[in-house]
Design goal:
By secondary structure, the chain is an alpha/beta fold. It contains 16 helices and eight strands. Helices cover 59% and strands 10% of the residues. α1 packs across α5, α7 packs parallel to α10 and α11 packs antiparallel against α12. 42% of the residues are buried.
């Protein structure tokens, strides 16, 4: 029977053959290790990385980013041959981002320095990068998770769920979205413009790489039990929620637009359907109470959808990686002129529905058709939102429209 190590061993042999060619050309590499109280293991990890680079004749460095250790981690890392920098802002993402900035070479391969990842594998990552990949992920499930290396909750629920969501929402196409051993070029790092300071940086990296159109590849690796004598820094529910929160925050389409439009559509359709069915005169299961609830849904949904449009525009203005061609078409469709026409049409419909009810109320002080009045009020609120929302969208979009204007030929063009 084939063991979990055999696929990795076969892949290692093939890629190490190619690595000999790679080595003869010289490869600039930084092996990066974030570190927090890892004095028991950091030295052995550094020595492995140094030995592997020497074996492959790779020009590079081992860079350890200490994130506030109160043990001998820094001294052990330096004694083992690493360059050490200190990042005072706490967090896995903060340490990695500092390492990315400090890295002296074009290719960066990083992994935890707790001996759960094998730094003898750095050559395989570099070879994939030299072959054209922008981001290389070590897939622990494809290579093998040794007994005791990953808690059941992470292996069976947390990691598969987060991988499913990031693939479904952002079309990343990876099998192990939370792997802590990765390689990338500094060009790819600049394109991703990473900002997160916690564990969620692992998801941010995949999301932005996909949005930027970078080439993402996976290679099988083995995950071993770590060598710590203390609990891991990862907190399952806290860090899992931070990953999920980030996925939603970076996707206004899934967080705002789609739910908002769906709720608004349901609310808008329910009221006239009930009216045409003959309801809305008296209280009951399908009476004014249900219509009022549908009105609230339609108004809330439209507001959430408007927030989604504004969120997408803000994201694109803050970071070019979120630029979406569909956004230009959407904002063009929601121009001030179209907003004014639509808002006036909704106001007209509101008046058509509401004025007869007002006239009856003025003569008899009786609301003859509460359902029709609810529909009129709903249309009026949606009209006001449309009128002012179109202006707000155009205000957010002013920089884009200015950038799209054609420029005059010559730096000093003038009118004669």
């Amino acid at each position: 029977m084939q063991t979990v190590a055999e696929p990795v061993a076969q892949a290692t042999q093939l890629e190490n053959d190619a690595a000999e060619v790679m080595a003869s050309k010289g490869v600039p590499l930084t092996v990066l290790m974030p570190c927090l109280n890892e004095e028991r293991t950091v030295g052995r990890c550094v020595l492995k990385a140094v030995a592997e680079m020497a074996r492959l004749r790779i020009t590079g460095e081992v860079l350890v980013v200490d994130n506030g250790s109160n043990d001998a981690s820094v001294a052990v890392a330096r004694a083992s041959g690493a360059r050490v920098v200190v990042e005072r802002r706490r967090g896995y993402g903060a340490a990695l981002r500092r390492g990315f900035r400090e890295a002296r070479f074009e290719y960066v391969v990083f992994g935890d320095c707790d001996e759960s990842y094998d730094f003898n594998e750095v050559g395989r990552f570099v070879e994939r990068l030299r072959s054209g990949a922008d981001l290389v992920i070590g897939n622990r499930f494809a290579g093998g998770v040794l007994p005791g290396a990953m808690p059941w909750l992470h292996r069976r629920i947390g990691n598969p769920l987060l991988s499913f969501l990031v693939n479904a929402m952002y079309r990343v196409g990876v099998g192990d979205s939370q792997s802590g051993m990765r390689g990338m070029s500094k060009t790819a790092l600049r394109a991703m413009n990473l900002r997160m300071s916690g564990m969620e940086l692992a998801s941010e990296m995949l999301i932005k790489a996909s949005l930027a159109g970078l080439r993402i590849e996976e290679i099988p690796i083995i995950l071993a039990p770590d060598g710590r004598d203390r609990p891991p820094h990862l907190r399952s529910f806290r860090d899992g929620w931070r990953h999920l929160r980030l996925m939603l925050m970076l996707s206004p389409l899934h967080l705002f637009l789609l739910p908002g439009l769906l709720v608004a559509l349901i609310g808008v359709c329910v009221i006239p359907l009930l009216l045409f069915a003959g309801y809305g005169q008296h209280d009951g299961m399908f009476g004014p109470n249900l219509m009022f609830t549908a009105s609230i849904l339609s108004i809330c949904g439209s507001q959430v959808a408007l927030l989604g449009v504004l969120a997408k525009m803000h994201a694109a203005a803050m970071d070019p990686v979120f630029e979406d061609r569909r956004l230009g078409r959407l904002t063009a469709a929601l121009s001030v002129e179209r907003g004014l026409v639509t808002g006036v049409a909704l106001l007209t419909a509101a008046a058509f529905c509401g004025l007869p009810v007002l006239a009856r109320y003025a003569s008899s002080l009786e609301v003859s058709s509460p359902g029709l009045w609810i529909l009129a009020c709903t249309l009026f609120v949606l009209a006001v939102e449309t009128l002012f929302g179109s202006f707000l969208i155009s205000i957010f979009d002013m920089h884009r429209r200015d950038d799209d204007q054609p420029q005059l030929e010559g730096a000093n063009a003038s009118i004669d």
